[in-house]
Amino acid sequence: MSDTAASLTNMTLHPQPRPGTATPWAFPAPERGRLDNGLTVLRCHRPGQQVVAVEIVLDAPLDAEPKGLDGVATIMARALSEGTDKHTAEEFAAELERCGATLDAHADHPGVRVSLEVPVSRLPKALGLLAEALRAPAFLDTEVERLVRNRLDEIPHETANPARRAAKELSKELFPAASRMSRPRQGTEETVAAIDAAAVRAFYEAHVRPATATAVIVGDLSDTDVDAVLADTLGAWTGNTAEPRPMPPITADDTGRVIVVDRPGAVQTQLLIGRIGADRHDRVWAAQVLGTYCLGGTLTSRLDRVLREEKGYTYGVRAFGQVLRSADPATAGGVTGAAMLAISGSVDTPNTGPALEDLWKVLRTLAAGGLTDAERDVAVQNLVGVAPLKYETAASVAATLADQVEQHLPDDYQAQLYARLAETGTVEATAAVVNAFPVDRLVTVLVGDASQIAEPVRALGIGEVTVVTG
Amino acid sequence: MPMGHTATAQAGSGGLTATEHRLANGLRVVLSEDHLTPVAAVCLWYDVGSRHEVEGRTGLAHLFEHLMFQGSAQVKGNGHFELVQGAGGSLNGTTSFERTNYFETMPAHQLELALWLEADRMGSLLAALDDESMENQRDVVKNERRQRYDNVPYGTAFEKLTALAYPEGHPYHHTPIGSMADLDAATLEDARNFFRTYYAPNNAVLSVVGDIDPQQTLAWIEKYFGSIPAHDGKQPPRDGSLPETIGEQLREVVEEEVPARALMAAYRLPHDGTRECDAADLALTVLGGGESSRLHNRLVRRDRTAVAAGFGLLRLAGAPSLGWLDVKTSGGVEVPEIEAAVDEELARFAAEGPTAEEMERAQAQLEREWLDRLGTVAGRADELCRFAVLFGDPQLALTAVQRVLEVTAEEVRAVAKARLRPDNRAVLVYEPVTAEQNENDQEEGADQ
């Protein structure tokens, strides 16, 4: 402490305290089983968690959508809770809310996920409703038609949102036009308009069955006879068996280039800079997580240290890796999964050029000099140390277990990942992040005012600049 | 009808307890033990928010919150963030109309570090606060404003509604983010004065929740915070009281580049902390919470005139709360059609009140939201501070859900009849314009 500091404070200063002894904590191990109908069940007792989380993983990937019907998986997911053989759409919503439950369903590249959260005392009732939605959805013409119109109404709102618009453009740029990944997950105006109840039912019949589904149940289950509840609910769901669906290979064109989505008058530029890289099956994943955190995991990481805390160009820029889809190693036939590796954030319009210049400088400096041991240590301490906080609720544990199922990973994957992170050294983390974000193989999407940002960005030489509208 | 039904045997307090303490310098402390997970949450509420700001300095409380992360006597630069994250913790701070909160969730064995860090900045921030931090964080906050409000469709709706619902000069007339002009005008001396005025131990409540030893925790708190002197420079916020209803329908039409027409409205509602406010919460839940609400069923399912329709409640203790209606229209539907349907539903509700089933659903929804809030140590720490700062009694946090379950259908009807009326709302209508129209308007504006 300096003399000036002393003169400005009149409290007693104490040295920074040392930590106590850490209490061991491990990511919970679920109990895996299978019901007679073929449904895989993972259950995990979490004492004190009164709100139980249930995740259903359905093997209904987006690439299974029929040609021209992009969005049918999304409409099907939403239609599951819009009426069954026993309840109308309004009754179903009312019954669910009477349990104090929430139910969300969405479709993504690996499949459809249905998430239920409910206080444990009402779990049997809510699981009964969930089973009804999976077992006997009504898919009435009127309800599907309403969901289609509602979805069409949502699209302009997404297009107007700079972050959503950037994500859509990046997918279009990265993936070949024939790949489902190049197109919006929830469909376009044209494809959604073509969806009807028959198409929804056909998709359901082809891809939704207990034999290829998994249920994850997490919470305080001490007073619940889970087997009995399951037998009465999800156990009553029937269906045939199906061969696992092979995953198409994932390829992407990451030639360095810039696409400006023109937004005249925008006060900020939304930036999304990405490519694809290794998924969790790759040995490099732990090092990639560690290195990516050092690059842009928090406001004291390399990117925000400059762009936010030194220059004030942004409220925050983050680097992340997000698995798009992983192959089942048992049936992959050489096909491997992939993750989207990206840097995103928004910067004020006049500083867009300088911000990107600094961003590339950060990447070049990292490639040239590597991470420091101190950086690596802090990152490991954070990533491993926050685990008990991150997994305090049933919902967060259930989501990770369901991700593991969806990505064909073993049930102890997350627990092992913490051990691997702790073993990963500075050199490995550096190599992984430099390999993940090579300066000449990044596709940059900028949603902003082209008349102000296109020229300064061209001058940076980070790739050919194309301006698009809309 | 059956009232007070609960989802768990212990709903209400959930078996949780909290103890209260006060240091000689006035710092109030609330402790709550929970040994299920080896984590501990530290939460510090300062009784200062945007309602304490003066004219020409909107946004200062929030800008100041950013400065609290820029170092103090023994913590260099971004050290606060670095040390907490390096210890495996997570942290942040937020600013609202009525308070500023700072929080760290730590692995339990790192609790002492979080207490040391909070005490260091409470007692010695001015030792580190300088122009460089001030200029940098001013730019960061301006970019926060652009990102969250100015560059998003409908992003300034809340600001506009607040400005309509609370009259000029009222402490809640402006929102915590403040205006660009005022953010530009704030000086280092303003920030220093703000600290000297409001950042005192006797103007704060500290809660620690989780896997803690209460005696040891209290000893650490005494050690680190005990020598920070109390001071009483604080002026009470300007009076936020207003008549129970607005008395007329206020209205603003916004022509902007938005993707669809929208009808938004703010209704003036009872103050937080009253039974009437809980009744209003239930009324808004029945009318516009979730997918079985009256407005969702009417506008989204039956009439099919809206993409989404719902109500939210902004609970406020120092001024009337706000019930916030938000309807985005479908296709080419015009706003008057939506407005007529909304008014019809509200009038019917005011006349008939909720059905028994609707009450049960609304109470079950609010109960689950409470279980969620109290289900994490951080959520619990925040709620304990909230009730201590705003209502003087942290124990009220543990019984809040019980109070919601005790409200009757008649009370819900009564508050709807008294408050959810056309002459008690500020209405904001969005009419989309194209980019070209917008540009022409701006050019015309420049000519004048």
User: How do the strands of the widest beta sheet of chain A line up side by side?
Assistant: 1-2-6-3-5-4
Helix percentage range of chain B: 40-55%
Radius of gyration of chain B: 23 Å
Which CATH-level-2 architecture of the largest domain in chain A? Answer: 2-Layer Sandwich
CATH homologous superfamily identity of the largest domain in chain B: Metalloenzyme, LuxS/M16 peptidase-like
Number of domains of chain B: 2
SSE topology string of chain A: HEEEHHEEHHHHHEHEEHHEEHHHHHHEHE
Low-confidence stretches of chain A: 1-6
Q: What is the CATH class of the largest domain in chain A?
A: Alpha Beta
CATH class group of the largest domain in chain B:
Alpha Beta
What share of the residues of chain A lie within helices?
40-55%
Low-confidence sequence ranges of chain B: 1-13, 442-448
Number of strands of chain A: 12
Q: Care to describe what's here?
A:
- The complex is a heterodimer of chains A (470) and B (448).
- With 470 residues, chain A is an alpha+beta fold.
- Chain A has two domains: 31-236, Cytochrome Bc1 Complex, Chain A, domain 1 (2-Layer Sandwich); 257-468, Metalloenzyme, LuxS/M16 peptidase-like (Cytochrome Bc1 Complex, Chain A, domain 1).
- Chain A has 18 helices and twelve strands.
- A six-stranded mixed sheet of chain A has the order 1-2-6-3-5-4, with helices on both faces.
- The longest helix of chain A has 20 residues, at 141-160.
- Residues 1-6 of chain A have low confidence and may be disordered.
- In chain B, 43% of the residues lie in helices and 18% in strands.
- Chain B has helices spanning 60-67, 79-86, 111-124, 131-150, 157-165, 180-185, 188-198, 214-225, 275-288, 294-302, 335-352, 356-374, 377-391, 400-406, 409-419, 435-447; strands spanning 19-22, 28-33, 39-46, 90-95, 100-107, 204-210, 250-256, 262-269, 306-314, 321-329, 425-432.
- Chain B has a six-stranded mixed sheet with strand order 1-2-6-3-5-4, sandwiched between helices.
- In chain B, a hairpin with a 6-residue loop joins β9 (306-314) and β10.
- Chains A and B meet through α1, α3, β5, α5 and β10 of A and α2, β5, α3, α4 and α8 of B.
